[in-house]
Amino acid sequence: MINRFTYIALACIFIWSISACSSDSSTEKPTTEISEDEKQDRPVGQMPEQQGGKDLMIDEPKAKKETTVATDNADVKRELTPVKVEDISEIIKNPQTAQPNPTVKKKSAVMKFDESVYDFGFVMEGDTVYHEFSFTNTGKAPLLITDARSTCGCTVPEWPKEPIAPGESGMISARFDTKNKIGRQTKEITVYANTLPTANKVKLIGIVDTPR
């Protein structure tokens, strides 16, 4: 009688152990097999891992971004041609005809005065001061005077209208009316020509006194 109960108990224990093992195996996570289509559609950042002859999806470590700075900028370098001060002045004075090319200005007119300031000393009010400023074209191109202006209507300049050839000379005459002009006087005359710069200046200076 005791042997029968012992056998029954052993049988129950054996059956219970078998059922426990089967339940543990059923709780294991299934391994996902990756098909060929899924491999092609695999998102960036994941890579397959072989386990038991099957492909498993695992996260791929992200690569550090590297920034490459281009140091060779020789293709964007420009050759800068230096511009002389004379060329800049010509562009300002004659913007329509100026050409910032150093070779263009080799032939130009130059207006050189024998004297740029004339001191007429002391004169009486009402007198007329007259003087001629002599000049020479020391340049390599004909000199053409386009205009001459004074700082006051009391001073009237006159100039040659014909071109002055290189090496030739000319005169700028100035007539100063001293009426109602008392004291120290300075009358400036600006002569405009095809020179560099285009403005050439001469002056009349002196003292105008009243009759006693």
Mind explaining what this structure looks like?
There is one protein chain. β9 (183-193) and β10 form a beta hairpin. The chain has a domain at 109-209: Immunoglobulin-like (Sandwich). It has 212 residues and is of the alpha+beta class. Strands 3-5-8-7 form a four-stranded antiparallel sheet, with no helix packed on it. The longest helix is centred in the first third of the chain and has 25 residues, at 2-26. The protein is built from three helices and ten strands. The protein has helices at residues 2-26, 36-40, 85-93; strands spanning 46-51, 54-59, 111-113, 117-124, 128-137, 145-150, 155-158, 169-177, 183-193, 199-209.
What is the structural class?
Answer: alpha+beta
The average pLDDT value, as a whole number, equals: 74
CATH architecture of the domain at 109-209, by name, is: Sandwich
Order of helices and strands: HHEEHEEEEEEEE
Radius of gyration: 53 Å
CATH superfamily of the domain at 109-209: Immunoglobulins
The CATH topology of the domain at 109-209 is Immunoglobulin-like
Which class of the domain at 109-209 in CATH terms?
Mainly Beta
> What shape does the CA trace take?
rod-shaped
Biggest sheet, spatial arrangement of strands: 3-5-8-7
Give a short account of the largest sheet: 4 strands, antiparallel
